[in-house]
Amino acid sequence: MFPAERPRRLRRTTALRSLVAETSLAPGDFVAPLFVAEGLIEPNPIHSLPGHFQHTIGSMRDEVRRLVNVGVTGVILFGVPATKDEMGSAAWDSDGIAQVALRALRDEFGDDIVLMADLCLDEYTSHGHCGVLRTDGTVDNDATLELYGRVAVAQAQAGAAVVAPSGMMDGQVGAIRAALDVAGFEETVILAYAVKYASGLYGPFRDAVGVEIVSGGDRKGYQQDPRNRREALREARADVAQGADIVMVKPAMSYLDVVADLRRELAVPLCAYHVSGEYAMVKAAAAQGWIDGTAVAIEQLTAVRRAGADFVLTYFAREVAEELGR
Ligand code: PBG
């Protein structure tokens, strides 16, 4: 008789556990980040992101084919231009690397995979900030909004089904929505990096895109303070009010409380970005033989889903999709 509660009954077999599982994880829950660099002859390995490359157009297509074959739902593209300037003008040039890559993927894969474009200026500016600078070196919010509108239209024109503003300028979603609508891209989806913390976990990403913030600067003037939780809801609600179709929390593992808050409070689809530093930490420990990397990856991605995210942007997309398909 004793004890009355016997939760272990339901843990006895794989089939029973699977029947009562509260959370699912499938390749269709993943979006894979991809880097494509201008002027490369061969794919260039990113050492702090083992298994990832700065791609050529050709190697990017091969990778997307592999992702489609294992059932990954989306890709998000980051362009690495050959030259940068003060304004980041290659970001909206119709012959800029991201636009060239988007056209190549649209032509080859059509709607077989959701094509997303990260919408920011930092990869394209000589100073590495996400917006244009005033003479005193601070980021000019409203001058940046106009440029984001141009980038959005260039990306939509090149075939992005989804644009994903990541620069954390106030009003960016509204400005981008207006620019897209005026240009006739009412169908283009906005995935807002609504809640993006000023995190130490973006290091490998900055290696991947060759971004160094001028004179040891940081993004604390526009990204969120990790000490704040309520503020996340305020940011996300503002983005939804401006027309965000999907909202994101970034990074993932250290902010699952925020994911759960947004899930409870908002009706829009929600995702989280398991960022470069999160991937690199798992890979580094696994390389030492200290943890089973794939098992930890599955545990972490499941946790993101359990907290309430509908899908996850992750560098583990292909590896875990392959494992889940075995
Ligand atoms: C900004 C951007 C960043 C990431 C995605 N978009 C870097 C930053 O804010 O410094 C980081 C993603 C990652 O670490 O995987 N364009």
Features:
326 residues, binds ligand PBG, 8-stranded parallel barrel, alpha/beta, 11 helices, TIM Barrel
Shape: globular
Residue stretches low in confidence (pLDDT < 50, at least 5 long) are none
**Name of the CATH class:** Alpha Beta
Q: First CA to last CA: what distance?
A: 41 Å
The structure class reads alpha/beta
Rg calc? 20 Å
Q: Which second-level CATH architecture applies? A: Alpha-Beta Barrel
Look at the structure and name the CATH superfamily. Aldolase class I
What name is given to the CATH topology?
Answer: TIM Barrel
Helix content: 25-40%
Overall number of strands = 10
The tally of helices reads 11
Provide structural commentary.
This protein is α/β, with parallel strands linked by helices. It has one domain: TIM Barrel, CATH 3.20.20.70. Helices cover 39% and strands 16% of the residues. It is built from 11 helices and 10 strands. An 8-stranded parallel β-barrel has the order 1-4-5-6-7-8-9-10, surrounded by 9 helices. Helix 4 links the parallel strand 5 and strand 6. Helix 3 packs parallel to helix 4 and helix 7 packs across helix 8. The radius of gyration is 20 Å and the shape is globular. The mean pLDDT is 96. It binds ligand PBG.
